[in-house]
Structures are given as C-alpha cells and as structure tokens.
Amino acid sequence: VATSAYGSVSLIDDDPLLWSTPALWGGSPQPPTFAGWKLARDLITLTKSCSALVRSAFKLDDAEVDGEVRVDSGECVYVILRSDVVVKFHLGPVRGSGGNLNVKIGYDNLRTSTLFCRVPEIEPHRWYTFRVALTGQSLRILFNGAEALNTTIVRDPRLSGSRVARSGHFGFGGTSSVGAFRNVRLAALSVPGRNAVPRLRVPSAYH
User: Fold this and answer.
1) For a disulfide at 82, which of 58, 109, 116, 168, Cβ 3.0-4.6 Å?
2) What's the rounded Cα separation, in Å, for the pair 149 and 56?
3) C-beta separation of 182 from 42 below 8 A
4) Of the candidates 114, 92, 95, 94, which has an alpha carbon nearest to the alpha carbon of residue 103?
5) pLDDT (tens place) for every residue of the chain, 207 residues total
C-alpha cells in the first residue's frame, strides 16, 4: 500500500458517482461510459470496447500510484496520472520500439511524446505489481519490484501544448484489450493545494 504524509486512498471504488470519462484537449471530464467495464471493491476489469475512466471528484499534483495489473489479451491496458501522463502495459514489444512498457505524455494522440522501456515479458492472465511516482516532471516506475524507468517527462517542443499538466485526474484505460487492475492505491506526495481533498465514503481515507 502506498503511504505518504498526506494520506492515501484506494483508487478503485465501485461507486459509479466517483467516475468520469476523460475528455481530449484538456477538457473537463464527461459523464462516465461504463460499457466494457466491471467495477468491484479494489478490482476493476475491462474488455476490448471501453472508454477510459478517471476519478473526477478530485485532482492531485504530485502523487504515487501502486497496485497490480493483468493483461489477458489485446494491445495494452494503462494507468492515467495527472490527466496527462499515461503509463501503458503491453503484452508484447511495441512495434518499432522494442519496449513493452511505454509512457505517453499527453492524453490525446495529436500532441504527445512517448517514452519506451523494456521490462520482463508480460504474460497473459498473470498479475504484476507496479508503482508509479510522479513528482513535478520527475517520473519513476517500478515493475514487479524492479526499477523500469526514472526520467524527466517533457513534451516534444515541436508539438502544440508542450507543457505537461501540473495537476489532474487519475484513472484507467485500455486499447483493444482485456485486462484488470486490483488493490490500486493513490497517495498524495505534495499538499493538494487549491485542489480540495475528496469526500469519500471512508472519512479517514486522507489523514
């Protein structure tokens, strides 16, 4: 479980009122589309045809997400951090890159930069642990307990909207894939600042 001086909360919750579908171009999240998703306490599964989901009740700045991921078939499943950084877990190497874990900076495909790294082969129907820490523009990823990436995230200056979002929403998605996440915790690594602490069904989730 991820912990910090500012508390932690389960990122997976079966209350549909806590979710939204993220919008492209930095727009406000839209009402959630649950087709292809199955929500349960501490477990979220997705099928090949589904939109991404984010926890829209709050935004955070610096944060750490950890839990377990499983990819059963298809291309990849992913975690969304701060609305703008997408960490993707692939069953096989991404074509032309040799990497099976990649980070897309920019939620929409028209203004993105991408980082690739290789982790041990991701086998279908197997659970893997992960931890992603995002502090300012510093990104660190651990996969199955080993460091996979430790870098500074920047957008390609030749692309529009070259700044990386400083705060945003956290959530999940997939690209033509079947997979799942479980026991995922979100911990604040900095004071939420102007972003209100979320109201959750467990009042002591943040402390």
Assistant:
1) 168
2) 27
3) yes
4) 114
5) 344 556 678 889 888 899 999 877 667 788 999 999 999 989 999 988 788 999 988 788 889 999 999 999 988 899 999 888 889 999 876 665 556 888 887 766 545 567 777 777 888 999 999 999 999 889 999 999 999 989 888 765 555 555 677 888 899 999 889 999 999 999 988 875 544 444 333 332 322
